[in-house]
């Protein structure tokens, strides 16, 4: 029997703390006399900020624990920080909207904490078993969250759809993992990498297993052709939940995909690179073209996020250090922009009724110039127009593609970004070039306003001070790809 | 010598003004008044700074001057680097001169959302100046694309009837061209590990890569110039943009393409430039003749001038790719002259548009009787556009044709027909608008140009004559930098200055 190693446990300290805190909050929620959503939510935000700080302070050296099932390195720490901050911010954003929609249940923050815990474990997974368990820990709270508005058909439908398709993808992933185990005899990432190292003829079982695993994970990042759930779930789920979906889980899923492909399957790059290129191109094209005709802003953002995942996958297709660095930068900036955009989506109400049509924004520039300005900044940034932050995300991603000689991918990427620019501009057009319709209410939610201001400033000022994110990303990439 | 970072100061001064305008609070009228005056003062200050910069500029040097360099993207060897030489310094002066003129020209004609309008113009000025001063490809690209944001808003919000269509067409067309340039920049970066423009000018780029990069740059610059057949966004954008938008579009934004050729394509890709000369010549000649003919048939004043811009820019690209001293100087001069003259012509259209709210040529006629001062001003700029000796237009066209004649006689002959056609469509326009019977009642009621409008035209008039009568004060400072471009081109292609191939 393995002796108990206290120091090795230390490297998973943030996760342990989060698990304990989440359970304490669950207890508080259950034991409390009446539902006290605000208190639990605030404590949840506090817990996540504590976790983020812990991660920031933690030792960036690579190390494993739990018998090699759990790994921590700069990459994991950086991505986990993103996830923790993203979850904290989306929990903060949710506050008032949930109360207004009468879905301010105590389960909400608790579920978000558990899902975040799953994401963090996912990023640190170093074994097929911990990969699967963490993936499910991440997914189940999400299924429940999508359906949290129990009285709404759309919400429950979204939850059910997400659950059925999510289970299917989990099944694919599990089947792939079992094939890998069957053909290599190992579940740990390092033993698998060793078993595959130097193999000239890779057996069909391993290839099938790998492709199935990619399919399962592609579902989680909502890359084409596993994207079908995204538009429906984004549209059906309550807006705060959609915001959370867009902000945190994708970061974790991309991180997991990167770790699995660069780690155990690193030697089989020739086999998976083509798959990732195909997925990436399909996502960029579909994300660009399908969004053009959307009239619902949440649906549009779903397609936009599919497109963005396509760009992020370019970095993975490049399969080098620059590529991973590109992904890390891209996901950071994407998260930032999603936060900003969803702040606006949460603000879209008319006489206290939620509205979701793009046309509802018409004339916003006249009624609420600052809000329209913030939204335009986000849209231009998402379209990748300099000098805003989104441009730099694309810059480093395309640089990775060029450095790996993937010119076709890079050119497809920039061309679809022009198509995508069209629909982002369309929103600006509605706000600025059209005359006022009924308009939307002025936001009374100070927290939301502050988050939006902070996100806008960050997007605008990234160009002035890019160093912290670039350095962090460089370090993260170095730990994943030597 | 100027020791402080004057280029950054000049570039970001308008941005500062824009931030200041953003903070203005109060009732609508006072906000508008404050926004106008802050914008005018800022742009005049910027102009003063740029003139001061020019006084410290060493005219005999071909090197980049007043260079500033700061770390920017750590780990990528991409820096914030600014500097000017004899080529960029004139474009900077042109931009800083036209911006206050644009703001003055919008003083009364823009009546809604004045604050946003002024912010957009100041932002635009920052982007333009940054682009001309940037000495790093990525920085260059940031400013080059950044121009799209304010321009999109200017056309889309304050434009005419089909403004949304025009704004989208403008934005997507130019974006499509520039994203390809981005890939080319990254390819160069991947090859040499730097995006520093002066260092890249020393590098030997492999032949195959050169051609691809050249085509990608061409995609971007050709749209901006614009060259035939990717010019179709220009008439739409010009027609729909507000007067000041057209002025800045014709005056500065079109020059970004020509500047790109001079700054990037020729020195970094000399062999590819030689390889593609026939293509550029053909496109230029087609542009000159075809768009001149199209201009003849226009019923809309702004559209006519827009097409004439394409024709004039055809001379520019022709001149640049002659790679002779006269050709390059002519192209530069033509760009500056067109910057002043086309801007002035759009202002002339703006004057009558403000009074009658139509751009249709048929609706006017006989203006010489009730607007004599206007008729005189319009005539001078019209003749400058035609290329009358003594005005700025003549010098540019003459030098270009002189340069082209040494290289390709047929191209010169065909391009020269453009001069004749140019005279035809401009004189025809002038005849229809200014001469004839003054019979329409609404035209009769139009007052002559006022003091503010005179103040706008005065500096442009002075420039047109100054450039036409004493061109040396412009040609001499730009000569060393242009010679350097030619020397680099000849060097790389093994041509000795007599134009004979070395063994």
Kindly describe this structure:
The complex is a heterodimer of chains A (482) and B (503). By secondary structure, chain A is mainly alpha-helical. Chain A has a domain at 268-482. Chain A contains 21 helices and four strands. Chain A has helices spanning 6-10, 13-31, 37-57, 74-100, 107-123, 128-146, 153-184, 189-196, 204-220, 229-236, 239-247, 249-262, 269-291, 297-318, 321-347, 364-367, 369-382, 389-403, 407-432, 446-461, 467-480; strands at residues 63-65, 70-72, 349-350, 353-354. A two-stranded antiparallel ribbon of chain A has the order 1-2. Chain A has a two-stranded antiparallel ribbon with strand order 3-4. In chain A, a hairpin with a 2-residue loop joins strand 3 and strand 4 (353-354). In chain A, helix 18 (389-403) runs antiparallel to helix 19 (407-432). The longest helix of chain A has 32 residues, at 153-184. With 503 residues, chain B is mainly alpha-helical. Chain B has a domain at 276-503. Helices cover 75% and strands 3% of the residues of chain B. Chain B is built from 23 helices and two strands. Chain B has helices at residues 6-22, 28-55, 88-109, 114-133, 137-146, 148-158, 163-192, 197-200, 207-224, 233-240, 243-253, 255-268, 270-275, 277-296, 301-320, 325-356, 367-370, 372-386, 392-407, 409-434, 441-444, 451-469, 472-493, and strands at residues 65-73, 78-84. Chain B has a two-stranded antiparallel sheet with strand order 1-2. In chain B, helix 15 crosses helix 19, helix 15 (301-320) packs antiparallel against helix 20 (409-434) and helix 16 runs antiparallel to helix 22. The longest helix of chain B has 32 residues, at 325-356. Chain B starts with 5 loop residues before the first helix and ends in a 10-residue tail after the last helix. In chain B, 60% of the residues are buried. The mean pLDDT of chain B is 88. The chains are: A mainly alpha (482), B mainly alpha (503). The A-B interface holds A 365-366, 369, 380, 385-387, 391, 395, 398-399, 402-403, 407, 410-411, 414-415, 417-418, 421-422, 425, 428-429, 432-433, 463, 466-467, 470-471, 474 and B 71-76, 113, 116, 138, 141-143, 145-146, 148-149, 152-153, 156-157, 163-164, 167-168, 171-172, 175-176, 179-180, 182-183, 186-187, 189-190.
